[in-house]
Amino acid sequence: MSVHTVFTKVLAWFDNNNVKIADNVGEDIDWMRVIPFVLMHLVCLLVFVVGWSPVALWVALASYLLRMFAITAFYHRYFSHKTFKTSRIAQFLFGVLGATATQRGPIWWASHHRRHHIHSDKDKDIHSPRHGFLWSHMGWFLCLKNFSTQEHAVPDLMKYPELVLLDRFDTLVPILYAFSMLFLGQFLEYAYPELHTNGSQMLVWGYFVSSVVLINCTLLVNSLAHVLGSKRYETDDDSRNNWFIALFALGDGWHNNHHHYPVSARQGFFWWEIDISYYLLRLMSVFGLIWDLKPVPAERLYTNLINKKG
Ligand SMILES: [Zn+2]
Ligand SMILES: [Zn+2]
C-alpha cells in the first residue's frame, strides 16, 4: 500500500466523500476501517489505568442511555421507518445525538436498515446471520461494499442538506463528544475534587466504554435477535423476540414483532413487553416535540400468529 493510499484512507476516516469505491468491489474486510473499531475496544482496557469513580460510572450509564435512545427512537424508528413525525430542527438535533453513538450518520444507517427489511435473511440481506454470525454482527459494516449510503433507498432523507452534511462528516460528531467528556472530567476534577474523577477517567468511561457497549448492543439486534429468542409471528425471516436485548436496546429486541409490523412506533406490542424508547417517545409527544405516532392496528396484533393462543 503506497503512502498516498494510506493518506487517502486516513482522510476518509473524517470525510466520507474521500472514499472512492469501485463498482465491482467485493465483500472483503477493509482493514483501515477495522483499525479504529478495534482501537475503540482496546482503549476500554484503560479502565485498569484510570480507575473508576461513582460519578464516572453514572456518566457512562447516562451517556449510554441517552445515545441508545437516539439510535432506537430516531435512527431506527424515525429515520428508517418514519413511525412518527417531528420538526426539522428536532430531526437534526436527534440526528446529531445519534451520530455521537459512533454508528455513522442517520442517512447511512437508515439506508442500510431499509435494505435489511426488504431482503431480511435472504441472499441480498446485508447482515443476515445465515451468512455467518460474526458477519451479521460486525463484518458487514467493516467492508467497503457497505460503506456508502444507499441513496436510492432514502430519497426522503437526502433532500435535507443538513442531514447530508452530517452524514458526510459523521466521524467529527463522536470526536467532539469524546472531547466534551474529557473536558467534563477536567472540570469536575477542578471544581469538585471530592468526586475523585479526572479528564482521562471520564473520557474512558463516558465515551469509550459507554460507546463500545452501546455499539455492540445495537449490533445484537442485527445478529442475535435473528437467532435467539421466541417467534410470535410467522414472518418471512428469522427475527426473534428477545427480552434480554429488548432491555438493553431500549425496546428494539422485540424484533419479531418489529419485522411483523415495522411501521409502528412501538416494538413491544403488549404491556409486558418493556419498550423504554416507546415510553419516552410517548412522553415527548405529550410535550409536542413529536406527533402522529403510528400504532399497531388491533387486527395486526393477532394476524400471522404461529401459536394461535399468542
Ligand atoms: Zn432484523
Ligand atoms: Zn427496522
Strand order of the largest sheet: 1-2
**Domain module tally:** 1
Q: Largest sheet, described in full?
A: 2 strands, antiparallel
Any low-confidence stretches, pLDDT <50, length ≥5? none
Chemical compounds bound to the protein = zinc ion
Alpha-carbon distance between the two ends: 57 Å
Indicate the proportion of strand residues: under 5%
Please report the total strand number as a whole number. 2
- Gross morphology: globular
Please tally the helical runs, counting DSSP H or I stretches of 4 or more residues: 15
Radius of gyration, in angstroms, nearest whole number: 20 Å
What fraction, in percent, of the residue positions are helical?
Answer: 40-55%
Mean pLDDT: 93
Following the backbone from N to C, one meets helices and strands in this order, namely: HHHHEHHHHHHHHHHEH
Could you explain how this protein is built, in words?
The chain has 310 residues and is mainly alpha-helical. It has one domain. Helices cover 54% and strands 1% of the residues. The protein has a two-stranded antiparallel sheet with strand order 1-2. Helix 4 crosses helix 6, helix 4 runs parallel beside helix 11 and helix 10 runs antiparallel to helix 11. It is globular, with a radius of gyration of 20 Å. The termini are far apart. The model has no long low-confidence stretch (mean pLDDT 93). The chain binds zinc ion (2 copies). The site of one zinc ion has 6 residues, from helix 13.
